[in-house]
């Protein structure tokens, strides 16, 4: 028989220091889902319900997880509604935050370790954290407002390019591409996630070379392009890499949070005075499983924002990756909607972005986004500066409610881009 102390109503713990985790699980009809939920709540906290030396009632009261809800999917009420196949549920468990404190490694271990790693195939699909817990995370230093102030751009989406080829370039070769691109008036240019700090193209040397290119372009255009340097590295080298790029004059840096870890990302964002960009590269290994891992709106939205990302590259359903629109919207909302004291992180929409898609992104999220166009800029037949101008022309057309075909009659760069990247059938 289930013990009453293993269960609690959500209203009872709503304003207390508990993390509310929601899991998706598939079970054979012969498995008692109530018992499975109980086992998880105990197994991921005090470890056992069977009396053992050292486990006291006081310890259970303060440290034990509790089952809040078990939701049937579909919502079966009658045994006659249950089929012969696997049954699916959403299990909600609360964990005392005192067990792991305001840090990522042990929070993840509690949420997805022990039973969730050994005896229960579950996917973490949602997580609600108490305000007191979140208060320990500083979040973004700049956020949307700070990035607007940094760029001096207030009335449109920001525009970002990533240098192509992705890797194999020397600092000098990359600087040449940077200069030609910056002449188009792009707001940010970042490294591709595949280029960080290799021997053939050290990050600090890129910072110096690209800053010089940015300065040369500014002298011609009056528009400053900010370079975002990828410093993703091993834990043994990251501190030195960061010191080197800061000394070289870095104005923004990028880290792949799934590969360096959210805790490392947080430590860096809290210690440096420049914007930190988060990239979702390699997050698919934790997101794409139906019965394991965690949902992308957490791994790419909630956690990077908590860790201090000022801007985050996220995927979209429009570039060939089969992301659902629901997860796409939920990720952007986790980044940008009000959340306690955390400043909003600016979403970066990437993956196959070109002028023909600009209106779609603005319709989805408004203007507080960054459009990340790589190949559409670097692959423009008239050169990368023309690629930037084509994107800017598409943005202006969207904001002035001008049909793209009409705008293209006045802008050859835009017409060329539309003919190449989104030709009319």
Question: What characteristics describe this protein?
Answer:
single chain, 425 residues, alpha/beta, Alpha-Beta Plaits, TIM Barrel, 2 domains, 8-stranded parallel β-barrel, 4-stranded antiparallel beta sheet, 20 helices, 12 strands, RuBisCO_lsu_C_sf
What is the topological layout?
Layout (H helix, E strand, L loop, with lengths): L9 H4 L4 E10 L5 H11 L13 H7 L2 E8 L13 E10 L7 H9 L2 H4 L3 E7 L2 H4 L8 H9 L6 E5 L8 H12 L5 E3 L12 H19 L4 E5 L4 H14 L4 E4 H4 L1 H10 L4 E4 L4 H4 L8 H12 L3 E4 L10 H12 L9 E4 L8 H8 L4 E3 L2 H4 L5 H16 L4 H5 L3 H10 L4
Parallel strand pairs: 5-6, 5-12, 6-7, 7-8, 8-9, 9-10, 10-11, 11-12
Antiparallel strand pairs: 1-3, 1-4, 2-3
Helix pairs in contact: 8-9, 8-18, 9-10, 12-14, 14-15, 18-20
Please characterize this protein's 3D structure:
This protein is an alpha/beta fold and 425 residues long. It has two domains: 4-134, RuBisCO large subunit, N-terminal domain (Alpha-Beta Plaits); 143-421, Ribulose bisphosphate carboxylase, large subunit, C-terminal domain (TIM Barrel), CATH 3.20.20. It is 42% helix and 16% strand. It has 20 helices and twelve strands. It has an eight-stranded parallel barrel with strand order 5-6-7-8-9-10-11-12, surrounded by seven helices. The protein has a four-stranded antiparallel β-sheet with strand order 2-3-1-4. The mean pLDDT is 94.
